[in-house]
Design goal:
heterodimer, A: 4 helices, B: 5-stranded antiparallel sheet, 4-stranded antiparallel sheet, 8 helices
Chain lengths: ~120, ~250
């Protein structure tokens, strides 16, 4: 047997670049959490912990593993107010900034009231 | 002395326990293989100070703790699946003692045998595909629109491009999934992963799980390679063989 069952015991980085895609193990955390938390056989043991009661798992991890559209379906949208997580919010901030700049340019009269922009 | 529990990683059939030698359980505990009516429970002892109900509610809120335990769980399941037909358990399946593990195997005996029948000789493969990154054009200051109307037209054109790209991506995902399916026993399309945890750039358009018999592995892999050649922009990412996490399931009927 050439496979070493110990190969996976060493710690792995959170994420693997696509170039490492021939690794047999799920190298990235999303793959692992998706499998061990959402898949696999559910047999109630003597220690009862409802994974759905765990805030980290239901909200943060779920948001990270599940698509944003799916999270919206589930009624989860708190990240909209969380600038660390919200790319949508960052997009809007960026667009607002652009629009404000554009407005200032127009108000300064540099673009004046001309409607036929000479597009390049 | 703290109370101990018995952590259940997987139920297997045809496992040579020696294959798990040198594989560490949780917190370096020794792996134990309990034989019961032709099934094998892969377990290890855990401290209920850390894995009891109260402690788990607290610990599962910590991403570093969760990652460590999830990876250790996966390592044991992987090592088991290398040499045996394996049904992985959900994370933190914990019984009070060995007798309780055996009682669970009795209770779920038929379902576990059916699940193991379904995945016998097979492993799970993961294939992901991504939407091609849209070229960023027209956002440079030099090409700035000179009127509000031109600005809005440009925004509209960009939105149209994005919609068309999304339609193309969905079609590619369907083709990849369907062609790979020809070499499988079963398939599942999982929800796309978010790039912040998955560590992939771009939008995931396909997160497919494929149950592939080991005899069909070569055909499956060459089909994936062929798709990768035909759709070079989709960044097709193939991983496996994994334990059949997505396919060894209990049907309550």
């Amino acid at each position: 047997m050439s496979e070493s069952p110990n190969a996976g015991v060493t710690s792995r980085p959170y994420s693997a670049p696509i170039a490492q895609s021939d690794r047999p193990h799920p190298a990235n955390l999303a793959d692992i959490l998706e499998r061990v938390l959402d898949k696999g056989i559910i047999i109630a043991g003597d220690i009862r912990v409802n994974l759905l009661d765990i805030e980290l798992l239901t909200i943060r991890i779920r948001l990270l593993v599940v698509s944003v559209d799916k999270a919206l379906e589930m009624g989860i949208d708190w990240w909209r107010n969380d600038p660390m997580l919200s790319t949508t919010a960052q997009g809007l901030v960026e667009e607002n900034r652009e629009l404000r700049e554009r407005l200032e340019e127009l108000e300064e009269g540099s673009g004046s009231s001309s409607k036929d922009g000479s597009s390049g | 002395m703290a109370d101990r529990g018995q952590y259940l990683f997987a139920v297997a059939r045809g496992l040579d326990p020696q294959r798990l030698e040198g594989v560490a359980g949780l917190r370096k505990a020794e792996i134990q293989v309990l034989e019961h009516r032709g099934l094998q429970a892969v377990t290890c002892g855990v401290d209920l100070d850390e894995f009891g109900e109260e402690a788990l509610r607290r610990n599962l809120e910590s991403l570093p703790w969760l990652e460590e335990v999830a990876r250790a769980h996966d390592d044991v399941v992987q090592a088991t699946a290398l040499g045996a037909t394996t049904a992985p358990m959900r994370l933190v399946t914990i019984c009070s003692d060995e007798a309780s593990v055996r009682a669970r195997l009795d209770e779920w005996y038929d379902g576990l045998q059916t699940a193991l029948d379904r995945v016998e000789g097979c492993h799970e493969w993961s294939v992901k595909a991504f939407a091609a990154l849209a070229p960023e054009s027209g956002d440079e200051p030099t090409s700035r629109a000179t009127s509000g109307a031109a600005y809005l037209a440009r925004k509209r054109a960009q939105a149209d491009e994005r919609r068309a790209a999304a339609d193309d991506a969905a079609r590619v995902a369907d083709v990849v999934h369907e062609e790979l399916g020809a070499h499988t026993r079963a398939t599942r399309r999982l929800a796309p992963q978010d790039p912040r945890l998955a560590g992939y750039p771009g939008t995931m358009i396909l997160n497919g799980a494929y149950l592939v018999h080991d005899d069909d592995q070569d055909a499956f892999r060459s089909a994936a390679e062929d798709l990768a050649r035909r759709y070079p922009d989709a960044g097709i990412d193939v991983r496996g063989p994994w334990p059949p996490y997505s396919f060894a399931t209990l049907d309550r009927e």
